[in-house]
Each structure stands twice: as structure tokens, then as C-alpha cells.
Design goal:
By secondary structure, this protein is mainly α. It is 54% helix and 0% strand. The chain has one domain.
Length: 69
């Protein structure tokens, strides 16, 4: 009985962890997509656009994102 309780507990915690991690995975995947890919139902982009982070850091202003920190 104790083993069944442990297995059930671990199964529940594993499913809960996946449920909590899904938005983070979706957020990172969406941040790496091209603008054209944002409406597609895929979680991860075909070709990750890592330069999106540098574009977000230096937006169209005289101030960088670091200025606000």
C-alpha cells in the first residue's frame, strides 16, 4: 500500500510539474519565433531567431532596456 501511495504521489507531482513548466516552454519558444510564425500552433520554431533578444534589448529609443534597471 505504501508503494502505491508513493507512485501516485510521484505521478501527480510529475504531471503538476509539467503543467507548471508548459507556459515557460511556450514563452521561450514564442520569443524565438519570427513574426510570421507567431500564429502557427507549434511550440518551438523551425529556426530559432536568437537575435530577437538583442532586438528587444535595444528597442527604437535612445535608451536601452538596461537603462531602466
Amino acid at each position: 500500500m505504501k508503494l502505491k501511495s508513493k507512485v501516485t504521489n510521484h505521478l501527480f507531482l510529475s504531471l503538476f510539474s509539467l503543467l507548471m513548466l508548459y507556459p515557460v516552454i511556450w514563452w521561450v519558444g514564442a520569443s524565438l519565433k519570427k513574426t510570421e510564425e507567431l500564429s502557427l500552433p507549434t511550440i518551438w520554431p523551425k529556426t530559432p531567431m536568437w537575435e530577437n533578444y538583442s532586438k528587444g534589448w535595444h528597442f527604437s529609443s535612445e535608451y536601452t532596456f538596461a537603462h531602466f534597471f
